[in-house]
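Sanity check. The docking grid for (6S)-5,6,7,8-tetrahydrofolate depends on where the pocket ends up, so I'm generating a full predicted complex first rather than guessing from homology. Inputs follow.
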Amino acid sequence: MSNQFVAKSRRLRSTLYSSRIEKQGVTSYTIYNHMLLPAGFEDSLEDTYNHLKNHVQVWDVAAERQIEIKGKDSYKLVQLMTCRDLSEAKNGKCYYSPIIDEKGGMINDPVILKFNQEKWWISIADSDVMLFAKGLAIGKNFDVTISEPDVNIMAVQGPKAFNLLEKIFGKEILDLKFYNFKYFNFRDSKHLIARSGWSKQGGVEIYVEDSKSGLELYDLLFEAGKEYNVKPGCPHLIERIEGALLSYGNDMDINDNPFECGLGKFVHIDSNIEFLGKDNLIKIKESGIEKKLMGVKINLDQINLRSAINLTVDNKIIGEIRSAVFSPTFNKVLGIAMINKGYFEVGQEFDIIVNQKKYKGEICPLPFI
Ligand code: THG
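Predicted complex below; grid placement will be based on this.
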């Protein structure tokens, strides 16, 4: 086996924190929104998993880029892109919202932040939402300005996150509710902080706009966090699969609709809002879905998935596994799989071939934990 390196360049953007995490021992990256997203540090996957579940980590998730929509028609454009009803959305709140195309296919699954009716941020997963937004705005002649401001998110995640945050921001941070955001003072600057993050362990995301102050804050989190055993980290494959946090491009893409992805509660076809793909989603709801994302458990102690692998029953393909990892908690491989109609039943057994060997698995509900 040989190791390859990704050649960095301007096009493959570094983040505000890249130089920091490279001193702190980042060992691998993935590419997300044309930007570096750390994928591993020196400790093993199992050690970083236990650490995340017991302590606190600071993550460079600057690759979760912000698409800013400003101007008179901002709400109209944001609503046109998502099937989640944002007509009653409140200022200072975050909304996990599927963005879909005219057929109802998933374009992205961002967190949308509403500042006010004329300013929104779409905190995107890995696809070029800005181009899609610009195309729609031009076609519809909307009065909006669309940009990607250089906002660098750092996430503070883990059960001790708020102990650490209270030390820096005071008791006020404890009052921040889930999926709400607010500006908090730090020295002579302020930072937008949301109670959110791509883990189930709790914490916040700090949207850094003032780079100089953001780096000071980054350093202070590690200094003040020593007593809580703070470490650098990154979105964690085991933890996110157990919690069924979906990864766009891995678990779903433009060929899947939000019903198939288990995101039906964010599809508001009964409201009178206008969004792309509405008619198609109404039809899909009536006729029922052809496939569905489900959990799978496999009696196997290791897996390294690079592409989807078929699942079979009596040699007939019944679906494909799209993400997978060995879970020390379940002592099995857990996966997220798209299962075909007729087979998406809990308890359904299947075969899978990994490294030329056949293993047995079983379909189960999501999330695992
Ligand atoms: N934070 C921010 N931006 C992001 C992500 C994030 N952009 C990219 C990516 N992550 C978007 N995808 C997801 C997927 C799942 C969740 C958030 C973003 C998520 N879901 C919660 C859950 O399932 O518990 C809550 C969803 C809800 O019910 O509203 O957190 O992480 N800024």
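Relevant for the grid: The longest helix spans residues 211-224.
Also worth noting: The radius of gyration is 21 Å.
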